[in-house]
Write a structure and sequence with these properties.
With 241 residues, the protein is mainly α. It is built from 9 helices and 2 strands. Helices cover 66% and strands 5% of the residues.
Length: 241
């Protein structure tokens, strides 16, 4: 859970929740469009929306539950208080979503690698819209920097704006240029950007394993390590065929 930025505050108006809903609907629409490229029965593509919805809810749950552990003060909260006040951590939501959607795709015998490839642009789009909700809601702000560019005064480092720019750029690239192995690019570029952006956060990121790195930085390093390992194993496999 993060404090509100003093300059942007919608009060009790649930702007973040509204942006999350818009993000889900937009990403589902984009998936429906992209799924037309997959050579599979039409009804399976439509049915997958249900599986996406289930995985989305699982992701929301894991993103909320994770904060019960990375913020020690929440241990004294009741269950309802934890659900209501602990907020959401995107990375844990992403992990919950990806694990559940891969399991469901395999369980229902989808061509999971092809479908996951077409889901990736929807993930980046949803993430960009969700981060816009952070911007409008006043959370996840950057450190005080007091920079003036021409007549524009920037009082805090624009961490949210940079994330949104990275995510929108990835979504555009996935739609017009990069058609294969999208998950590898996303899980390399975003964690790298997120790792360095975290140094300019101004709000409390909680605690996970070690104190000199934020939870998001630790997860970024783990994800990058996994992707590099997978790519290295693929290179070895192709070399010794």
């Amino acid at each position: 859970m993060t404090e509100l930025h003093p300059l942007i505050n919608f009060g009790k108006f649930p702007i973040f929740g509204i942006m999350v809903a818009i993000g889900f609907l937009s990403s589902a629409t984009l998936y429906i469009y992209n799924s037309k490229k997959i050579n599979d029965e039409r009804y399976k593509k439509e049915d997958l929306i249900i599986l996406l919805g289930i995985s989305f809810l699982i992701g929301l749950a894991t993103s909320n539950i994770s904060n019960w552990f990375i913020y020690p003060e929440y241990q004294a909260f009741t269950l309802i208080e934890k659900i209501k006040f602990s907020g959401y951590t995107f990375y844990f939501g992403l992990i919950g979503f990806l694990i559940s959607i891969v399991i469901l795709l395999k369980l229902f015998k989808y061509q999971y690698s092809e479908y996951l490839n077409e889901i990736v642009p929807s993930i980046t789009l949803f993430h960009a819209i969700g981060r816009t909700g952070c911007l409008l809601g006043g959370c996840c702000y950057g450190k005080i920097c007091n920079i003036t560019i021409s007549s524009l005064a920037i009082d805090r480092f624009p961490v949210r704006e940079i994330e949104i720019l990275v995510l929108i750029s990835l979504t555009i690239l996935f739609q017009i240029k990069i058609k294969k192995r999208r998950i590898y690019l996303y899980l390399t570029v975003y964690p790298l950007a997120r790792f360095f952006i975290e140094y300019m956060r101004g709000d409390n990121r909680g605690y996970l394993f070690i104190e000199f790195l934020s939870p998001s930085q630790i997860i970024s390093l783990i994800i990058i390590g996994i992707i590099l390992t997978i790519l290295f194993l693929e290179i070895l496999k192709n070399k010794f065929k």
